[in-house]
Write a structure and sequence with these properties.
Helices cover 49% and strands 22% of the residues. The protein has ten helices and twelve strands. It has helices at residues 7-35, 87-92, 107-136, 158-161, 181-189, 247-274, 285-298, 300-318, 326-339, 345-375, and strands spanning 40-55, 61-75, 138-141, 150-153, 169-173, 176-177, 195-202, 205-212, 214-219, 225-230, 233-235, 240-243. The strands form five sheets. It has a four-stranded antiparallel sheet with strand order 6-5-7-8.
């Protein structure tokens, strides 16, 4: 039975997810900038009309704006919140006015200031995962020999059609060794309609066969639909045990979990670009609000995990080499490091303006996409 989450919970969940994550992201930029002596002229949570604001003793205008779908730090020397350099103003500055100007800071300082935003989002996710690992420990099978042993086949099973039998122990997918059934799911669910090589053991004999992953449309308890890959097997249910972990292992597990999520995001984006996955699975702030409310309704653990997932997504998106995003700035700094001088001011300005336009077009497209989906 599908569950319905009230709109007010969407709004609350959205504000509890994006509000803190955007603020933390921008604080990363701000704090590293302050550390390097760069002056911040404005720190805004949201875009558009200022609803509340105050100016601190350093001359920074702290404000909350009307549209809570982003935020920015505007450093001294920026033409606008996208940190586009004002080339004419920079050329006219007197030597004493260059102090505290972002674009007159050393290249490596500018790069670290820009990277600090995504880095703080990654640290937030790591902190949440570390907390989970410290509280719950890691899940292990009581009998490792029973892990990934096929206990049943689905009615439609490409694994059975390929010749696999009950009791076969799946060892690897595409030569990647599997630790547990979750590994198997990760290596299958993201790749519908693709053929993989599965290595398994039967009566002590190890074999490898090609298996085509089936494509299925599945809905969660809230009715959210997604395309997943399945080979139609379920594991025998071995007893599970929880093993406590120390801080060092918790950190290591958290890094692994974060990397796996990054890999999933990259894989999903590639599939959308080449047409293997529908663009409708991507979304705007409307879909984030919907998912936020749904996860909030499930309780604190689920909501905390969702915050970590969105935090990693924010870091990934911001690191894309699109002008006006953090990754675009870093790409320009890479060019500057190679050329030993900045890119031309006209080319730079047009690149940033094009990047801003591209991001806005994507936001409008995905917003319309979400509205259409909700109407359906």
């Amino acid at each position: 039975m599908l569950e319905s989450v009230p709109i007010w919970m969407w709004i609350v969940g959205f504000l509890l997810v994006l509000g803190p994550l955007i603020t933390i992201h921008e604080l990363g930029h701000y704090l590293v900038g302050r550390w390097f002596g760069v002056k911040a002229e404005a720190f805004s949570v949201g875009f558009g009309k200022e609803l509340w604001g105050r100016t601190d003793k350093h001359g920074t205008r702290w404000k909350i704006a009307a549209l809570p779908v982003g935020g920015y730090v505007q450093f001294k020397g920026d033409m606008n919140p996208a940190s586009i350099p004002d080339a004419e103003s920079l050329e006219e500055l007197a030597p004493e006015e260059k102090a505290g100007n972002f674009h007159h800071a050393a290249l490596w300082k500018r790069a670290l200031i820009v990277f600090a935003g995504p880095a703080t989002n990654i640290l937030v996710a790591l902190a949440i995962f570390i907390g989970f690992n410290m509280i719950y420990g890691k899940v292990l099978p009581a009998d490792p020999e029973q892990e990934n042993v096929i206990g049943a086949f689905a009615e439609a099973s490409s694994a059975r059609e390929a010749g696999m039998q009950l009791g076969d122990k799946i060892i690897a997918v595409n030569d990647e060794k599997l630790e547990d059934f979750m590994d198997l799911q990760r290596n299958i669910s993201l790749y519908p309609n693709q053929t993989v090589s599965i290595t398994y053991s039967r009566d002590g004999v190890v074999s490898t066969i090609p298996v085509k992953i089936g494509s299925f449309q599945e809905k969660d308890q809230f009715g959210n639909e997604s395309t997943v890959g399945r080979i139609g097997v379920s594991a025998a249910a071995p007893e599970r045990v929880f093993e406590p972990v120390g801080l060092g292992e918790a950190i290591s597990l958290s890094v692994t979990q974060s990397v796996e999520i990054f890999e999933m995001i990259v894989t999903g984006l590639k599939q959308v670009i080449v047409g293997d996955r529908s663009v409708r699975e991507m979304g705007s702030f409307i879909k984030i609000a919907k998912y936020s409310g749904e996860q909030l309704s499930l309780g604190a653990p689920e909501f905390s995990f969702f915050i970590a997932l969105i935090s990693i997504n924010l870091a990934f998106i911001n690191l894309l080499p699109i002008p006006a995003l953090d990754g675009g700035h870093l790409a320009f700094y890479a060019v500057e490091a190679v050329r030993r001088k900045p890119a031309g001011p006209v080319a730079t300005e047009w690149a940033y303006r094009t990047g801003v336009a591209f991001v806005l077009v994507l936001m409008i497209f995905f917003t319309i996409n979400d509205v259409v989906d909700l109407a359906i």
